[in-house]
Structure formats: C-alpha cells, structure tokens
Amino acid sequence: MADNNEQQEMSFLDHLEELRWHVLRGVASIFIFSVIAFIAKSFVFNVIILGPSRLDFPTYTWLCELSHYLDTEALCIKSLPFTIQSRTMTGQFAMHIMSSIVIGLIFAFPYTFWEVWRFVKPGLYQNEQSATTGATFFVSLLFITGVLFGYYVVSPLAINFLSNYQIDESVLNEFDISSYISTLSMIVLSGGVMFQLPMVVFFLSKSDLVTPDSMKDYRRHAIVIILIVSAIITPPDPITQILIAGPIVILYEISIYISARVLKSKQKKAKKELRKV
C-alpha cells in the first residue's frame, strides 16, 4: 500500500513538474517578446501606442474616405483635442515597462496557449482530443483578430469620443500617459478575449452548459447590450455603431451555429450507441 501511495505521489509530482516547465516556457516567450518591444521603444511608442492619438492613423483616414464616399461629414474625425502628459517622475519608465509586457503577451499568446494546451490535452478522452483538433490555431486566430479589431476599430473611436467629451469648455483634456496606455491596453486585450466567444461556446456546449436554444432565447438581450456598449464608445451616428456592434453580433450568431453543430454531433453519437445496444 505504501509503495502504491508513493507511486501515486510521484505521478502527481511528475505532472506538477511537467506543468512547471510548460508555464516556464510560456513565461519565457512572453519575456523574450517583452524585451524586444522594450528595446524597440521608438517604433513601439511612436507607431503603435501613440498611433491612435494622431489624425494620420489609418482608421481616421478610412473613416474620412468613407465619409466622402457617402457624402456626409459625420464619420470624418477632424480633431483630437487632448494632450498626453507624464505627471509622475517614474511615469514614462513605468509605462514603458507595462506596454512592453502587454505587447509581449499579445505576440507570445499563440505559443503560450500551445504550451498550456500540450499539458491539458493528454488528460482528455480520445473523442475529446479529436473534437478539439486545431484548438490552438482557432484560439490564436480569434485572439489576434480580436486584438486587431480592438486596436484599429474600438480604440480610435473610443479615444475620439473621450477626447471630445467635455462637461464644460473650461475643463481641458490633458490625459496622463498611464491613463492613456492603460485604456488602450484594456480595449485591445478585451477585444482579444471577447473574440474567444465561439470557442467558449464550443466548450460550454460540449459540457451541456449552453444550448443553441438558450442562446436564441437570449439573442435579443445580447443584441441590446451590444448596441448599448457600441453607442457609449462611438460618436452619435448609426454607421460607426454598426462598425462596432456588427462583428460582435456576427460572432454571437456564429456561436449559435457552433453550439447547434455540437448538439447535432452529440445526438448522432447517442443514436449510434442506442443502435449498438
């Protein structure tokens, strides 16, 4: 009995050791990309981070071109009346480190998720492993798509709204660098997480926690919430609200389809098992 317990304990410790190495490799990849981003300070800040704060940012250019095409000035953003300051002695250095870590996390995400998935996958049943083939690819693809959506669509529209919002003309918008970078990071990372909805629904449907019928029942509630959020962060015109809400609604509809496919697959499997009996 003592030998069996010792073997089980060693087995647990072996798994713990394996997990530790997977986590260490994932953290190492984040560290490497963070160091690269830290070294490339000029490009990272001038082009990537401060890009949405300037009118020559691609999104503002595209919106102005779309505005001219539709013969309306509603979409063309012509001013961003705010300045960015650093009000603390360590502000710029601290934000340099923070922004490097965020960029490192984004670029290392596919590899880090792959390392975690390599540890989790062997613990699944054979049918579960086959059902989740390509999980790393689809999770990474959705994450990167969400990050790009947050950076190129949500961030510039949110920055435009917040920079033009004034409770009184005497109050100037002078944002601290930490506030600007924190807001930008939150929007971009939230986009990456938000776009995981189809994968989350897939796994929840596999666990019988979500069904296509329940998602259809709450479709109206979801659309209302999406429209409210898009209306808050965009200018008061319907076209930009559609630019924000449209992809999220499409993701919700795709998630319903995925849940239905999972349910159909389960029903086919149940019928085969009944035939065997």
Structural description of this entry:
The chain is mainly α and 277 residues long. Helices cover 77% and strands 2% of the residues. It is built from 11 helices and 2 strands. The chain has a two-stranded parallel ribbon. The radius of gyration is 24 Å and the shape is flat. The two termini are 39 Å apart. The N terminus is likely disordered.
Task: Name its key features.
flat, 11 helices, two-stranded parallel ribbon, 77% helix, mainly alpha, 277 residues
Write the layout of secondary structure elements.
Elements: H1 2-39, H2 41-49, H3 58-69, E1 83-85, H4 91-120, H5 126-131, H6 135-164, E2 174-176, H7 177-194, H8 197-206, H9 212-217, H10 219-233, H11 238-276
Parallel strand pairs: 1-2
Helix pairs in contact: 1-4, 4-6, 4-7, 6-7, 8-11, 10-11
Into which percent range does the helicity of residues fall?
A: over 70%
Number of helices: 11
Global Rg: 24 Å
Question: Which parts are unreliable, with pLDDT below 50 for 5 consecutive residues or more?
Answer: 1-9
Largest sheet: 2 strands, parallel
Order of helices and strands: HHHEHHHEHHHHH
Distance between the termini: 39 Å
Choose one word for the global shape.
Answer: flat
Question: Which structural class should the secondary elements be placed in?
Answer: mainly alpha
- How do the strands of the widest beta sheet line up side by side? 1-2
Number of distinct beta strands: 2
Strand content: under 5%
Average pLDDT for all residues: 84
